Amino acid sequence: MKRLFIVVIVVLISSLTGCAAMIHSSGSRSETRPQTLYEARLIDAGDGTELSTESLAQRLAQTDVVVIGEYHGHQATHLLQSQIQAALYRQQPLQVLSMEQFNLDNQAAVDAYLNSETGETEMIEDSSAWDNYRASYRPLMEFARQHRLPVIAANAPAAVVRCVGRTGPDYLNRLSASDRKQFPDNPFMDTPAYRKKFTAAITGSHGAADATMRERMNNTYKAQLLRDNTMASRILAARDAHPDHQVIHTTGTFHSEEHLGTVAMLRQRAPEVSVAVISPVIWPADAEKPPLHENRNKGDFLYFIQPLPEEFLDKDREQKAMSARFRRPTKDTCQGDSP
């Protein structure tokens, strides 16, 4: 039972960190449901008007950090991200791309590719790029490379995140001084609203937990906070390194929607920095109009998209697949942790 709970926790974290196409006229209310998985309806969360990517870019031209939340692997999300990146560049060519999808310990591999020192496959291998890099993130990287824009590997190292989730936040104290310097001061800073949201997501899927499970849930939450604080710190470091540049940050929507997670950490660490959040919302198949009212707090701007197909209908097959996907490798141990 405990093993199943651990699998559930890992799957939830994967989905929490994630895991558009032709957007029409600006200034009118959108009541047309996306017809394909490539389409999105981009809407101002404040007044409900539909926007084109160009009109959105005009509104955000002076914003310091633009955070584009995503459902990992959704075609509409990744097409829209690319369109927004290009539209913002036309408004403000001093631009930095920050990505959750690369970990900070792989920054050198990202830079080598941007500097034409390696090929794409070499970069994918050297940077431990996500499996869907070519389908989802290649357009963002290539736009940055072609326009000689910096790309920030913003996420915390995956091995450290796993070990914090497994053994607790004190794991950082076991790292060498040089490794510890990669992380920001107060790396587990949070907000009550984020903790409440995270706890609801976990307990809503698994129900009540005993003391041991609560400890594991808390460690998992700390691992999530390590990601958020690291990404916020990396974004702010990018602004220091590239003054007057606008930062576009791509991330799983749980890290940014409702202005929580990474966005809340940005505001706590640098309240003078302006941040805009663009969040995805699924348009239900049986809804005639976009569900704006109940979702408007998710971001400053929303984009409505079709749901992805269900991965599994057979729950037993789903459990077996998730167990296999997240099975702990024999040699995957933390300092002081036994296999």
TrEMBL record:
The keyword DNA-binding does not apply. Residues 315-339 are annotated as: Disordered. CDD domains: ChanN-like (cd14727). Residues 56-265 form the Haem-binding uptake Tiki superfamily ChaN domain. Gene3D superfamilies: 3.40.50.11550. Residues 1-20 form the signal peptide. It comes from the Bacteria. InterPro entries: Cofac_haem-bd_dom (IPR007314), Fe3_uptake_reg_CjrA_prd (IPR016773). Keywords: Signal. This is Uncharacterized iron-regulated protein. The lineage of its organism: Bacteria, Pseudomonadati, Pseudomonadota, Gammaproteobacteria, Pseudomonadales.
